[in-house]
Description:
Blueprint: H1 6-19, H2 26-29, H3 35-51, E1 56-62, H4 66-72, E2 78-83, E3 87-88, E4 93-94, E5 103-112, H5 123-129, E6 130-140, H6 151-156, E7 161-166, E8 182-187, E9 190-196, H7 204-216, E10 227-232, E11 237-238, E12 244-249, E13 253-259
Parallel strand pairs: 3-7, 4-13
Antiparallel strand pairs: 1-2, 5-6, 5-10, 5-11, 6-7, 8-9, 8-12, 12-13
Helix pairs in contact: 1-3, 5-7
This protein binds hexanedioic acid and magnesium ion (MG).
The site of hexanedioic acid has 12 residues, from strand 6 and strand 10.
Amino acid sequence: MAAIDYDMLANELRRAEQEKRELVRLTAQYPEMTVEDAYAIQERLVDMKRKDGYRIIGPKMGLTSAAKMAQMGVNEPIYGYVFDYMVVPNGGAVAMSELIHPKVEAEIAFILKQDVKGPGITGAHILAATEYIVPALEIIDSRYANFHFTLPDVIADNASSSRVVFGSRLTPPRSLELDVLGASLSINGEAKAFGAGAAVLGHPANAIAMLANMLARKGGSLKAGDVILAGAMTEAIRFASGDVVFALFDQLGTVSFRAT
Ligand code: 0L1
Ligand code: MG
């Protein structure tokens, strides 16, 4: 059985993203790869991006819906990191020439006013530590052919992180009921998906709390000023060049982009 070379695999994933090239899932060659191996690869990938000069905007949660977890046969979500080069201005353009086979999902993001360190963090702790809620469109773009991957593959691939568009309105969480807050996602004016905050582990703050507790296992924490995606409220939808993608969130405003 070949030893898993974390640096080599992280570099392969980095180059696949840079060159917009699909990879065969890593576990086809390394079926023994564990979740721990996968996060070790992700850590190397994140370090490589930082050495390339990119800055982390915040960690993100993925696979937070019951449907996605059931599909992957897991009972815990995953995390990855959003970098500055991934951020597209609200109403701006997402260049398809830079991506492989992107999909979009409606999410909400939390901006913290204080550091949060697990273990033992609850959704209530997160709401108390949150300065603002921001609506977002996350664009995921797995580096694996046809989005075919197992759990370790997608963890190693930085949870398919690719682009994100944040809304322009910041709303304090105090007056919001994020579990019953709805979002609709449309493409070229046609409704494609609907969802509510409860699709994200019952309440999006629960996802951020779980993230704090997962990071704590490795001595990590959430930082004041982080912009943290909680996970998808809607299913992920394919889009194509020329599409206008628009999301409307109850109480939070709108987010949009053009695919060019
Ligand atoms: O943001 C996410 O939910 C990442 C999920 C990763 C799985 C996928 O690429 O569909
Ligand atoms: Mg997501």
